[in-house]
Design goal:
This protein is of the alpha+beta class. The protein has three domains: 164 residues, Aldehyde oxidase/xanthine dehydrogenase, molybdopterin binding domain (Aldehyde Oxidoreductase, domain 4), CATH 3.30.365; 153 residues, Aldehyde Oxidoreductase, domain 4 (2-Layer Sandwich), CATH 3.30.365; 321 residues, Aldehyde oxidase/xanthine dehydrogenase, molybdopterin binding domain (Aldehyde Oxidoreductase, domain 4, 2-Layer Sandwich). It contains 18 helices and 26 strands. A hairpin with a 5-residue loop joins strand 18 and strand 19. Helix 3 packs parallel to helix 5. The longest helix is centred in the N-terminal third of the chain and has 28 residues.
């Protein structure tokens, strides 16, 4: 996610706060509560002596409490390093613990206060918060030592969890923890000068979960085994929007191990003693579906409608008409006169294709509702559970485990698979644990997708070959439809559909811009997908600029440099220059290879990539990818490089092969045999170079994903002379 939740609960009106409170707790009106209080109503979570983010054991080991889930992106190490740096703790004795669900204590400051991980915001929103937590804990140990030794605070130092005085007196955190815990935490402790950092920015900051994941001791939802636990699967409608009309469970009930079969709002639940029994019984079910309100169109028909809307052949609906997302100059000139480059791009639905499909364990009845799973947005999951149970939101206990990937899939406004599990556990009752398991086929055919998108552009050039007018039309579904009260959508449209185009330096450098978006209703569920709007806007902007450079007879790097100069885009220029230098742009590419370049900003970071590409049997092969990133203070260079590698491969996989299609409303793909992903042998070598910066950290989990597609397309443009107007590059 880029910034889908930012300020979601910021400064709500009293009416909104009360309405939300009443809705979220099953009609119980929470009078006089602030939004964080309302979200955490009923919680019994209390911070310790060193605050909600720091614990110190009697043996001196430091535990950093992470409010952000770890699903492969490696944020736990960076978050722990922030605390350890300010605390001067021994990095080898720093551990990470997942925070409980409590929005008041663990709200994401870039998501308006809900507790959640997304938008590449984990480090960015925690930077000041965790620095302050670490500095406060350090100050408490210093004060405890100074009092015990009767020396001035200014004379006490800390290094590697050892507090010392020039007189020779020393004490470890463990020896002082009882006294330090009695010190009142300072509200505004002095923070280190970044020049004094010894941990942050060093190669010492490596993952804390590597050993557990390597040895198989890391705990995921699928690993959960609880006494008397049942397993459930759900039969979903083959068409989106379909409902259960009736079902015959006679054959399914004959399967050994089946406990109960019943209807829930999203289908028919089969509860059994094992996953095998549940799935076998589901396969034996006979369900009659009511498809009267289902989406019955295929992707060909949906995309044809988008093209007609963008061209004006079909009038936009009055309800959801065209909305301007960027306009300046005399916009009438964007549609008249001059030799114009008129181009259009199509992007397919994409699956998230997580390694671990959706799953959840729920216990409802006999005490507060309890969930055990990889919760990406505990607050949303608490709220949706509270509606069903019913219960106070904060009373819903969530034990967050590791998760095998998300890319945006594990969080949505409905908490879809979580809500299913809660409905089933409520029906089972008595607090008996129920594990809901989605197969990969379930998620591929009944989950959420990156939306289909169509872009149509008309651009004219000035006498020097630079854009003079830029007309831009985008047609895509709204991801934010169904958002809770107060969630931002960019005003009267969902800006996630145009982020990356909106505010682009190329538009800033163009005298006349008329850019609009149309977001029609379609019955296919859509969701943020790793890098959200940038998944298509980066491609459109960057591949278009290369075509403009070709028309103007200019080198693509020099052409961008000129545009960045016009727009004052100094960070873009910085990463472009670094990537071009490291890739040897001014030198010939290796024999048989061609280079392509692309630059894009997302999640506060700017990434440039130069990709070396060749064609093998008509299929693009990507060899070396040189990446430059400006992401502010680099807490863990090793992890930033890992994210650039992973993001690049994820983006390349989608650009090369990714595509979800529908025929008469039914999803055609079901698993990796029909939804092709990048193989190890196809992964490029990714080199990462980080721009030195004193700015606060910005995102790194997603910014590497959207740049590789256009970099490859631009290399192909140089190689073949032909633009690539649709993805995937390799058609099935």
């Amino acid at each position: 996610m880029n910034k889908p939740f930012k300020d979601i609960a910021a400064a709500p009106t009293r009416r909104e706060a009360l309405a939300v409170g009443a809705t979220l707790v099953g009609g119980a009106l929470l009078v006089g509560c602030s939004m964080p209080d309302a979200l955490s109503a009923g919680s019994k979570v209390k911070p310790g002596a060193f605050g909600p983010f720091v614990k110190v054991d009697p043996d001196g080991a430091v535990t950093v409490v992470s409010k952000h889930i770890e699903f492969g992106q490696g944020n736990h190490a960076g978050l722990a390093a922030i605390v350890a740096e300010e605390m001067d703790a021994d990095w080898d004795r720093v551990k990470v613990e997942q925070a409980p669900a409590n929005a008041k204590l663990y709200g994401n400051t870039l998501m308006g206060g809900i507790q959640g991980t997304g938008g590449s915001s984990a480090i960015a929103n925690s930077w000041t918060q965790l620095r302050t937590a670490g500095a406060a804990a350090r100050a408490m140990f210093v004060q405890a030592a100074a009092t015990k030794w009767a020396v001035p605070v200014a004379e006490v130092t800390v290094k590697d969890s050892v507090v010392a005085h020039p007189s020779g007196r020393k004490a470890g955190f463990g020896e002082l923890v009882a006294d330090a815990a009695k010190v009142t935490p300072p509200q505004a402790p002095a923070l280190k000068d970044p020049k004094a950092f010894t941990l942050i920015g060093s190669d010492l900051v490596r993952r804390k979960d590597a050993q557990a994941k390597s040895t198989g001791t890391a705990r995921y939802t699928q690993d959960v085994r609880l006494p008397n636990m049942l397993v459930a699967v759900v039969a979903h409608a083959p068409l989106f929007g379909g409902k259960v009309a009736s079902f015959d469970a006679a054959e399914a009930e004959k399967v050994p191990g089946v406990v109960e079969i019943f209807k829930i709002p999203t289908g028919v639940a089969v509860v059994a003693q094992s996953t095998y029994a549940a799935k076998t019984a589901r396969d034996a079910l006979k369900v009659t579906w009511d498809d009267s309100k289902a989406e019955k169109r295929g992707t060909t028909q949906i995309l044809a409608q988008y093209r007609d809307l963008a061209s004006g052949k079909t009038a936009a609906p009055e309800k959801n008409g065209w909305k301007s997302f960027e306009a300046h100059g005399d916009t009438a000139k964007a549609t008249e006169g001059g030799e114009a480059l008129e181009i259009a791009y199509d992007f397919p639905y994409l699956a998230h294709a997580t390694m671990e499909p959706m799953n959840c364990v729920a216990m409802i009845g006999k005490g507060p509702p309890r969930l055990v799973f990889g919760s990406q947005s505990p607050t949303l999951d608490q709220l949706n559970t509270a509606r069903i149970a019913p219960a106070l939101p904060g009373s819903v206990e969530i034990e967050t485990l590791f998760a095998g990937g998300s890319f945006g899939r594990r969080t949505n406004f409905q908490s879809d698979y979580v809500a299913e599990c809660v409905h089933i556990a409520k029906k089972v009752g008595a607090g008996r644990p129920v594990k809901l398991v989605w197969t990969r086929e379930d998620d591929m055919r009944a989950g959420y997708f990156r939306p289909i998108v169509h872009h149509a552009l008309r651009i004219t050039l000035d006498k020097d070959g630079f854009p003079a007018t830029w007309r831009h039309r985008v047609v895509t579904q709204s991801i934010m439809k169904g958002a809770p009260p107060g969630a931002p959508t960019g005003g009267d449209y969902d800006e996630t559909g145009v982020e990356g185009a909106k505010g682009s330096p190329y538009l800033k450098a163009t005298p006349v811009v008329d850019a609009q978006v149309l977001q029609p209703d379609v019955g296919v569920p859509v969701l943020w997908w790793r890098s959200v709007g940038a998944t298509h806007t980066a491609y459109v902007m960057e591949h278009t600029v290369d075509q403009l450079a070709k028309r103007a007879g200019k080198d693509p790097v020099e052409y961008r440099r000129a545009l960045y100069g016009k727009a004052g885009a100094t960070r873009h220029l910085g990463v472009l220059n670094l990537a071009a230098e490291k890739a040897g742009w001014s030198e010939p590419a290796p024999e048989g290879w061609t280079r392509g370049v692309a630059v894009h900003e997302s999640f506060g970071s700017v990434v440039a990539q130069v990709a070396e590409v060749k064609l093998e049997n008509g299929v693009p092969k990507v060899g070396r990818v040189v990446t430059a990133i400006d992401c502010g203070v680099a807490i863990s260079p090793d992890q930033i490089a890992a994210q650039m590698e992973g993001g690049t491969c994820y983006g390349l996989s989608a650009a090369m092969f990714g595509q979800i299609t529908l025929t008469d409303g039914k999803v055609d793909q079901a698993n990796f045999d029909t939804y092709r992903v990048l193989r190890h042998s196809e992964a490029p070598k990714v080199e990462t170079y980080i721009v030195t910066s004193a700015n606060p950290p910005s995102g790194v989990g997603e910014p590497g994903t959207p740049v590789i597609g256009p970099a490859v397309a631009n290399a192909l443009l140089t190689l073949t002379g032909q633009p690539t107007f649709s993805q995937p590059f390799v058609k099935s």
